[in-house]
Amino acid sequence: MNGVVDQRPGAGPGGMTNRFDRLSVAIVGFALAVLAVLWVSIEGFVAAEIESKVEDAKRVNANLARVFEEHTARTFEYLEELLTIMVRRFESEGRELDLAARFRELRPNQQIVINSLITDAAGNVILGSHGAPAISLADREHVAVHFGRDLGHTFIGKPVQARVNRQWSLILSRRANNPDGSLRGVVMIAVNPFYFSGLYSELDLGPSATVSLIGADGVIRASREQEGASIGRDLSASESFRQTYQSSVASFVRVSPIDGMRRIFASRRMAQYPMLVVVGTTYDWELKDVHGRARTYRIAAGLVSLLIVVIPAGFIAFNAWRQAAQRRWLERLREAIENLDSGFCLYDRFGRVEMHNAKFVEPYVGLRGREILGWTMADLAREVRAHGGFPDVESEAEFDAFVDRSRRLLDNPPATGRLVQTLPGLWTQTQYRRTADGGLVSIRSDVTQLKEQADSLRKLADDYARARLIAESADHAKTEFLANMSHEIRTPLNGVLGLAQVLARGRLDPEQRRHLDGILTSGETLLAVVNDILDISKFEAGKVRLEAIAFRPSVLAGQVRDLLAEAARAKGLELRLEVDERAPAVIGDPSRLRQVIQNLVGNAIKFTQRGTVTLRLAVTPDGGLQLLRCEVVDTGIGIDPDKRRRLFERFTQADSSTTRRFGGTGLGLAIVKQVIDLMGGRIGVDGAPGRGSTFWFEVALPAAGEAPVAGKLQPAAAASALRRLRVLAAEDNAINRTVLSGLLVEHHDLTLVENGLEALNAVRAAPPDVVLMDVQMPVMDGPAALAAIRAQESGKRRVPVVALTANSMPGDRERYLAAGFDDYLAKPIVAEELAAALGRIAGQGVVLAETAAPLAGASPDAAQDAALADLLSDIGKI
Question: Which residues contact 382 (CB under 8 A, 6 or more apart)?
């Protein structure tokens, strides 16, 4: 099967498109429904507000029309009364009537009445309140209407416009009769038509509001001054007028036939007069607030609609983009899965195969080329098993258990990979991960090569472990050998050197003294070799610790010179010392530095046959430290440049002829380099064959400042500097007991025992001032005896116990001190070291010319050790 197979519902591009189309249609339908509801609601609300506002306007205008009707009726009553008076006067006085005077007497309202005229029976003007113009009004309706018969009431004529000033007036006329009832004339009053609507001039009825008085004939008798152009207009042809006039009271919204504006009208037909009172306000003015709110509502609705359109459109566009991206991503995913080096399979939440790549089925004959969609893990395992798979699963019962474990993978997939030999020689590791919908992803990798490499590495690791055990055993054997050899050499050497020291205290002739010096020199040389070997072991074990003691480099150099001066004189060499006595004190390990300088100077003396050996020492500031530089210059055999690099290697000299000629183990310079390296310094050598050599080293050390500096020991016998002590010595070797007796009996009260049990009994019987305890003894060894002594001391004085042993391997001193010993002395015993140890135990050391005190952090005996070295130099010991 080639390519990634994925037949999940909706997994392909078509399935995603269908889902997307359905979702898009649903979103569009929902958006349209929301838009419809929104706009229907908005328009319904606006319509309701308009209707409410129109009804309010109708009520207001109806009230105004009623007020206008009452006002007009009172005005007409007033005018009729005025006209009636004038008719009676004219009927009684005739042409003799002084109309102007009578007019003044009546004092008509000047805002209403403009003037008054009276005509004769022919219609000619005969009298006037403001003069009688010689004109005929017989053709005027308000005059002619009275010629035929007596109306019996006031006639309200149509408005007329003056020919001269173009002023409108409304003429009210009434017939005046002779006593016989014949026509005498017509009495007229000209009325200001704008007075009728003047009541509303102060009211804000909005722009283009109308207040009109219309006669039954449809002619507009009066209106507001703003509407003066409408006076005299004939509306009799308007169907709306006829319908309105037929109703005594009416409210309606209509487009005005005069100016075409839409208004809200209220009308009332006057009961006493054939007149129609009409009040109208413009529709837009009345609804301006509603229209403003409606505009706001519609803008808001438009914005909401825009959002309703934009958001779904954006969502649809985004989903279209995402769908395209998903299609691209899915194609890349399929390509990536197909190109995996591992087999990939996706199971649904029921454990059935949903998708896989070709590499998943490629190794298996039973699966290759077959359609496995819908198969379970158990189906796959059985098919692989049927074609020789799972060779490590021997029985069917084991295979059934294996299949059962496979079923449970869906619920509890392992955190680590599952390693299985699926085919003979084919090892696979399968990683399982749960999917969000409860399915399972498996990635199976061919780890056959890794398995073979792991097996090889495991074998190598086993071989290495065995080799390491062998090496550790060899190292342990070497350590044991060194310890045993050191012990076995030191024990007889203790007797040789110890007895030689005892003999040296006696009276000897020169020949005997020379022989004894030879014994001491040979023994000390052998001891130096043993100590060098043990020093190398200490460096290898990383157990060398540097002290931090204040000292003067000039004093240190002087000590080395004094120590080796005799050896130089014996060879006829001049040993020079070039050092600044004012050099400041520094903090370091003077014992180790003395060891280095002594070794370099000793080598120079050894390899120089004639001439000089010069020791130069200088101290210069170096940042916050003091740089100590030491040079040892000789006129000896020199060193070939190509052999210098091997000088500081262990067991190495410049060449074998040097060893045969001068002797030595080749350890000295190796130890020197390791000491300098431990101090963080540098060491080197210059020179040429036949021209001598210069060995040098540099170390940076802190300045001592105010720290007390170790002084110089006064030449004196160490033993005589102590008070007499009661000493108990436990030693199983008779020769060593003889040595101890020879060294101590003259100045101390000495008791000798042969093992730890005897020492314990002696302490119980008479506690001594100090116990010198050998470590390895029969019956009871030293540590056991120490434990017993400490156990019985509860509430009593503590007896100091010094470990006296030939064990001097790295860590031995620390181990014995940790076991409870108060001090430690390594064999062979040196008289001065023994005296110093007794002095420390007794609390009184050798007398110093200057106060000596170690720095904080240094061992309490560091100053004593420095003083002891001075003492050794004075007595010629190394």
Answer: 403
Q: What is the rounded distance in angstroms from the CA atom of residue 825 to the CA atom of residue 841?
A: 12
Claim to verify: residue 211 and residue 352 sit in the same structural domain: no
Q: Is the dihedral of CA 397, 401, 406, 408 positive or negative?
A: positive
Residue 430 forms part of a structural domain:
yes
Amino acid present at 215: G
> Using alpha carbons only, how large is the chain's radius of gyration in Å?
69
Q: In this structure, are residues 241 and 214 in contact, taking their beta carbons and an 8 Å threshold?
A: yes
Place of tokens 């691209």: 328
What is the per-residue pLDDT across 61-84, written as a single tens digit (0 to 9) for each? 888 888 888 888 888 888 888 888
866 and 815, same domain (yes or no): yes
Q: Is residue 696 part of a domain?
A: yes
Of 414, 446, 478, which marks where a domain is finished? 446
* Residue 166 belongs to domain spanning: 99-191
Task: Tell me the pairing of strands 418-423 and 426-434.
Answer: antiparallel
pTM to 2 decimal places: 0.39
DSSP 8-state code for residue 635: -
Residue 595 is assigned to a structural domain of this protein: yes
Residues 690 and 549 in one domain: yes
Token reading at 820? 């409870």
Q: Which residues of the chain are modeled with pLDDT < 70?
A: 1-20, 163-164, 197-203, 225-229, 392, 394, 415-418, 422, 472, 474-488, 490-491, 493-495, 498, 518, 520-525, 527-543, 642-646, 648-667, 706-722, 810, 843-878
* pLDDT tens readout for residues 133-185: 888 888 888 898 899 888 888 898 888 887 667 788 888 999 999 998 899 99
φ, ψ of residue 507 to 5 degrees: the values are -90, 120
In this structure, what token pair is assigned to residue 751? 């008791």
Q: Is 379 helix (H, G, I), strand (E, B) or coil?
A: helix
| 555 lies in the same domain as 527 | no
Residue 669 within any structural domain of the chain: yes
Q: How far is CA 381 from CA 404, 405, 622, 783, in A?
A: 11, 11, 77, 69
> Quick check: 730 and 756 in contact, CB under 8 A?
yes
CA 145 to chain centre: 108
User: What SS3 state is found at 88?
Assistant: helix
Tell me which residue has tokens 């390519």: 3
Q: Which residue has the tokens 């006696």?
A: 506
Round to whole Å and give the CA distance between 264 and 284: 9
CA distance 69 to 73: 6
- pLDDT tens for residues 518-530? 676 666 667 666 6
Can you tell me the distance from the alpha carbon of 339 to that of 335, in angstroms, rounded to the nearest whole number? 6
Residue where a domain terminates, one of 288, 303, 323: 288
Q: Are residues 167 and 256 in the same domain?
A: no
What was the pLDDT predicted at 124? 93
pLDDT tens sequence across 98-110: 888 887 777 777 7
Query: Which residues have a Cβ under 8 Å from the Cβ of 148 and sit 6 or more positions away?
Result: none
Let me know: does 630 contact 616? Beta carbons within 8 Å. Answer: yes
The number of angstroms, rounded, from the C-alpha of 428 to the middle of its chain's C-alpha atoms is 40
